[in-house]
Amino acid sequence: MFQLRTDLAVEAREIYNEGKEKEVSGVEVEKEEDKDYIVTRIKILDESGQQKLNKKIGSYITIESPALKKADQDLKDNISKLLAKELKVMIEPMKHNKVLIVGLGNRNVTPDALGPKVVEKVLVTRHFFQDYNKDQDESMANVSAVSPGVMGLTGIETGEIIKGIIEKTNPDIVIAIDALASRNMKHISSTIQISNTGISPGSGVGNKRKPINSEYLGVPVIAIGIPTVVDAATLINDTIGLIIGEMKNHTKEGQEFYSLLEDLSSRDKYNLIKEVLTPYMDNVMVTPKEVDDLINDLSQVVSNGINISVHPGIDLKDVNRYLN
After folding, report:
1. Distance CA 124, CA 87 (A)
2. 102 sits in which H/E element
3. Cα(20)–Cα(29) distance, rounded to whole angstroms?
4. What are phi and psi of 137, to 5 degrees?
5. What pLDDT, on the 0 to 100 scale, is given for residue 264?
6. d(CA 58, CA 229)
7. Which of 77, 152, 197, 284 ranks highest by number of CB atoms within 10 Å?
């Protein structure tokens, strides 16, 4: 059986809850809605929740803003501040004076370039701390950043590179940024996920690599991701669903047939489509045509949020001045 591919905990919950009235056992959910965004906070509490959602025990915060795909500067600034607020809540319990920011992905493949683009815009300060022989500062954190590339370019597991850097620089916490895969078109380039469970580079497109998490690296890891691709079967599945709904609304004949198709679970429809597509276009990923502009805008939103959250004396006005 094929599995619906998603890196988002909020989607994993939707998939499991389809057709069920009760919330997933072992999972707590809290929702906050605003005119510009929806924040969903999911806590996977035990092994039961982990098995059902196929996500590690921990916290997952999702910020959804459909307008983010065509955001003006005000909305980007508001989402950056919201991201910073949620990040602060997640990292406050940890000692994090020294921060390593890791931009995962391939800068030569635009949908996968989110991590490297974010790293270009974060405010790095570790060299100043070394030059002035300081351990702490009231307004700035000790921040270093790296884009380790992908195994296809370096021949080295990304996790091994990061672990080597950690052994030399001894950060208190790692913040890793990566592009994700979604199973719903509405989440592409409009959803930000934050989690304290780490990340597995390449998992969204079926590549299994060493996980970048606290167990492997020996320090806490916060992961930030934005879905930039869906696979072809997901795209067709969503499109067929929209077509069935429209045809059902505009015809009297064949209502029972359309209702039968509509009643199929998302998992069953996806598996059927995937099976039909496999001989012709297996493992095809789809991304928006304006992905270049989207990655530039989203990398600014994420980098601003990180800069505000890790540096005590930095606000949005400061980071915008720095980036410009």
Report:
1. 18
2. strand 98-103
3. 16
4. -150, 145
5. 67
6. 25
7. 197
pLDDT band at 123 (very low <50, low <70, confident <90, very high): very high
Q: Which of 10-19, 104-113, 200-209, 229-238 has the highest mean pLDDT?
A: 104-113
3-state SS class at 313: coil
Three-state SS for 156? coil
**Are 175 and 222 contacting, i.e. CB atoms less than 8 angstroms apart?**
yes
Q: What is the pTM of this model?
A: 0.85
- Beta-bridged to residue 119, according to DSSP, are none
Give the span between the Cα atoms of 106 and 112, in whole angstroms: 5
State whether residue 170 is helix, strand or coil: coil
Q: Tokens 């499991």, residue?
A: 16
Extents of the domains making up the chain? 9-229+290-323, 234-281
Does the pLDDT at position 252 exceed 80?
no
Among 67-71, 87-91, 219-223, the range with the most confident prediction by mean pLDDT is 219-223
Angle at 153 (CA atoms; ends 152, 157), nearest 5 degrees: 65
Q: Check: CB of residue 103 under 8 Å from CB of residue 118.
A: yes
Chain-centroid distance, C-alpha 90: 15
Strand partners, 38: 33, 64
CATH number of 9-229+290-323: 3.40.50.1450
Q: Are 144 and 126 in contact (CB under 8 A)?
A: yes
Rounded to the nearest 5 percent, the helix, strand and coil shares of the chain are 50, 20, 35
